[in-house]
Amino acid sequence: MKVVIAGAGIAGLSAALFLARNDIGSLVFERAPELKEVGAGLQLGPNATRVLLRLGLGDQLRHFGVAPRAIDVLDGPSGERLVLMDLSDVETRYGAPYLTIHRADLQAILAEAVRRNHATDVWTDHEVKGITKGGNGIVLTNGHVEHGDVIVGADGVWSKMRQKLRGSGPPTYTGYASLRTTISAELAPHLPRDRVQLRLSPNAHIVAYPMRGGEEVNLVINMRTNDPSELGPGDAHALVENWPEDIRHAVTATQAWRAWPLNGVSPTKAWTNGKHMALIGDAAHAMLPFMAQGAGMAIEDACCLAACIADLPLDEAMTTYEQVRMPRVNQVVKAAQLNGRTYHLSGPLAKARNAGFKVMTGERLIRRFDWVYDYDAETASRFRPGQPAD
Ligand SMILES: Cc1cc2nc3c(=O)[nH]c(=O)nc-3n(C[C@H](O)[C@H](O)[C@H](O)COP(=O)(O)OP(=O)(O)OC[C@H]3O[C@@H](n4cnc5c(N)ncnc54)[C@H](O)[C@@H]3O)c2cc1C
Q1: Tens-place pLDDT, residues 335-364
Q2: 209 a catalytic residue
Q3: Residue 385's pLDDT is what?
Q4: Which of 24, 280, 343, 380 has the highest local Cβ count within 10 Å?
Q5: Span 55-78, average pLDDT
């Protein structure tokens, strides 16, 4: 059995490793000349770290990641605390850590594990152009054709593989964009190094958290805009003009803010061709980052797809993968959309939201996310529709 994968992002590399764990070989084609620093910070919930630990990556993840002690939800303009979600017992509660990590570090950890594994390999500087007529091979822009028993599209939000599978065009702009930067912690001396901070305001919210042993801070400003190409450092600085000193100091410490339009891909259209081709990660379901679960879902997809391929005849593996993953991801996508609406309320509705957060303890709030964090993608993938779960 050989699987050919397009894209060596978090989804593609995770898929290669979960396949190898199930004794299935794979080859990953990546268009970038090298896997270098791309993106910014990621939060990984215990649902994602749980299955990554099973790949033996625990030491590296803990080395490069930070385990925040809390998620602090604040009113942006006043800095008033609305609710504090304690994460200090997250490992006891869910059996796996909550980590913040640079995307480049996570990608490097996964790529290194792929290179160490004899069952799998990554070829960088190899761009995928399409698939063969029968659909069981990948065609590269350099003319090379690689056949496989299964073809996996892990080529991100602008996926060519999705266009081949669904026949649909580009992703849809969600109406939201992010401004992102990472700064040295020295430039943000007033921000705590032990927690994720979420600061809410009408039409925009800021997420700030430590990375790389607390030496760097990841800052993201998510806002509604019709024209993301116009966004720049001036917008970041203007947002916090009258906000408390701790966050204003950090946001205005740099001009190096980069705008990312947030594009979405419908999670309810085909993920497989029912035979030997599947999409995973952003290629299947790019979502708003307001649940901090895009990479988490990519990792879960990879784990589930590998288990299905290992356990079932291929056509059944494809349908089971889709049946297990589609409702789960759809639920996360909807929760992220709801968070977007809630975080950006204004006027009396924002006041009502703030009052609601204040009466809700952090303990009650975190329990609301049990369905996200308690999920085990490997166990779930071994549930067969029509049969009772273990
Ligand atoms: C502002 C923001 C904040 C976020 N925060 C979080 C968070 O806190 N937690 C979280 O879990 N997620 C978060 N996400 C989402 C997360 O970054 C993505 O969901 C995740 O990186 C998707 O991984 P992927 O491997 O599917 O796609 P990608 O990371 O896009 O990887 C796709 C890979 O395929 C390659 N590729 C593309 N086309 C081709 C081709 N034709 N041939 C060969 N290779 C190709 C690309 O070069 C790339 O390496 C955030 C996203 C944004 C924008």
Answers
A1: 999 999 999 999 999 999 999 999 988 888
A2: yes
A3: 55
A4: 280
A5: 96
- Residue 203 region, left (φ>0) first, then alpha (ψ -120 to 50), else beta? left
Task: Determine if the pTM surpasses 0.90.
Answer: yes
Contact 152, 5 (CB under 8 A): yes
In a 10 Å sphere around its CB, with 0-12 CB exposed, 13-18 middle and 19+ buried, how is residue 149 labelled?
Answer: middle
Per CATH, domain 2-68+100-171+265-341+362-381 is 3.20.20.80 = no
Task: List pocket residues of ligand 1, CB cut-off 6 Å.
Answer: 6-12, 29-32, 39, 42-43, 127-128, 154-156, 160, 178, 180, 220, 260, 262, 281-283, 289, 292-296, 298
**Distance in Å, CA 190 to ligand 1 centroid:** 31
Both structure tokens of 145:
């054709």
Pocket test for ligand 1, best of 13, 14, 28, 31 (most atoms within 8 A of CB): 31
Note the pLDDT tens digit of each residue in 279-314: 999 999 999 999 999 999 999 999 999 999 999 999
